[in-house]
Amino acid sequence: MDIFLVKSLEYIFQQKKDALREKNKRAAQIEIDERMKVQGKFLEIIQHKGKHVAFYFVSQLNKFKEKQRLRKEGKNIEPELVRSGRGPTERPSLGKQPHFLFILADDMGYHDIGYHQAEILTPFMDKLATTGVRLEQYYVQPVCTPTRVQLMTGRYQIRYGMQHGVVRPPQPDGVPLDEKLLPEALRKCGYNTEMIGKWHLGMFTEDYLPQNRGFDHFMGFYTGSQDFYSHNKCFSGMCGYDFREATAGQPEVIRWDLNNTYSTGVFADELEKRLSKMNPSEPSFTYLSFQAVHSPLQAPRKFIDQYRNLKNRKRRNYNAMVTAMDTAIYKVVKAYKKFKFWDDTILIFSSDNGGNLKGGASNWPLRGAKGSLFEGGVRTIGFVHSPLLPVTDWFPTLLQLAGCKTSDYGGKPLDGVSQVRQLWMGSNGNDHARDEILHGLDPLNKVKNTVDPRQFPIIKNRTFSVDVEGALRWKQWKLITGKQSPDQNRWSTPPTTMYGGAKTIFDKVEPKKSKLVRLYNVVDDPFERNDISDEHPQVVNVMLTKLADYYDASVPPRYPAYDLRADPALGDGVWRPWRLTPAQMRNMTAEDKKKYSQETHVGSLRLNY
């Protein structure tokens, strides 16, 4: 009996052993087949589309497999914060106030940096990012001015009426003078403040200029864009030169000597000159606001030649501009080291909005573009040398790192929250400084002749309606209301199409024309492909209520008409402030002040004249 039992157990064991061997054999064969399939696809892509596309394909496949593995293990795969190497998490405790170097690129696409597998050469930015903290849940505004004003105030633009569009050169508009800006707050706690580059926050009177809004020194231009070499800006038939330097409390100097010089390189050179005159033992805040990579698509020939094999001219020139900016940043950091600033410096890099697809940029694989409330318009490149992090949060974050109290900065309540703990001290996946971001809310952009068949009774008696363009992020959810233009609604094709053959992986674009409320889970669906508003009505109701609350708390948008008195041709051919400040009007009679205000529509800006 015992022998029979032993034989039976041996037989069962052998059966299981054979079955396991067969299973492992099949698994090994499947793995070999998959490897051969990938290898064949890789060789095919190399042959027909080039090695850049082939390596991009492999990298994306590996990322997909890794996410599948993490999902099976039940782990959180949200790309909150990417740390590697010696970064801010390994800094010694700050024994003194650090220097801040905040670098802002203009219109740089989410895809357009080396560590996002782009074909663009950005070796120095890649090094800074991979030895620091990469921000992969980093949000800005869809266009230039709103991002810059949030950075400078730490407050949503709905608080002061700048939620519609950008400040145009002849518009009598700017950041209201009762808003305290970041450089003013830092100067209050002992910082020297420096700005180099693009302002774009108003210039119609001298009070609105950067050197009068908290910066000790400014070198750059006031308008939103210009020729990279001639530094001329033309808008609505008005043309003028716009390159100057100014120190607070002193008249500005027009830098005619920099005509026919490339602005990206000039900004790096001018900052080096400033550093040579500054004391590294005194804390400094430097705002380096590049013109690149905004149109026009211009770059020195030596950078364009690096991409001479690209057939698409826009992509070729755009890539060259990015590489030129990477070189300029290298020069800036080299200067920081040369003049003994670097060891105590915190460097922050950001773009102001998503890339402009018509200007050679790529936000692949995100949906949308500059001007859009989809991820491709508002989610961008950022790193520090995050958790859910909008540009609004830099204001209180920098104040905390500087040892300043936000309650003492002298301004209005902030919408931003400090991210110091998440960035420098680490956090687990559930420890976030915020779980909500208002991406945009613009009552001047309303849908006409389109009605959503759903009623949304939750906001029936509210002033907010779903035909208003708006977007809100709450936890993993993102709600979009109103309508996006077709050019800003779509996904960009991979940049590899620029030199042959690749197609978008998406076969359709929603939303349907009649749908004015869309809901996405941007953790599980970061490409915003699947509208799930019908499946989650309770989430939609919560988020519509939040948007309605923001709407009720907002200031009506201020977007004044163009003022023909701004035309540089009426003066010396330079873009300058063209309206009088309150101080300059001090000696006017009450009747003359009233007449002047009526002539220049100053009253429409609700200024205290």
TrEMBL record:
Is Metal-binding a UniProt keyword of this protein?
A: yes
Residue ranges crossing the lipid bilayer per the database entry:
none
- Keyword Lyase assigned to the entry: answer is no
Co-factor(s): Ca(2+)
Residues of the region (Disordered) are 589-609
UniProt cross-references to InterPro entries, sorted A to Z: Alkaline_phosphatase_core_sf, ARSB, Sulfatase_CS, Sulfatase_N
**Keyword field:** Calcium, Glycoprotein, Hydrolase, Metal-binding
Sulfatase N-terminal domain boundaries: 98-403
- Basic and acidic residues bias (residue ranges): 589-598
Family, similarity comment: Belongs to the sulfatase family.
Spell out the protein name for this chain: Sulfatase N-terminal domain-containing protein
Species source reads Oikopleura dioica (Tunicate)
The beginning of the lineage is: Eukaryota, Metazoa, Chordata, Tunicata, Appendicularia
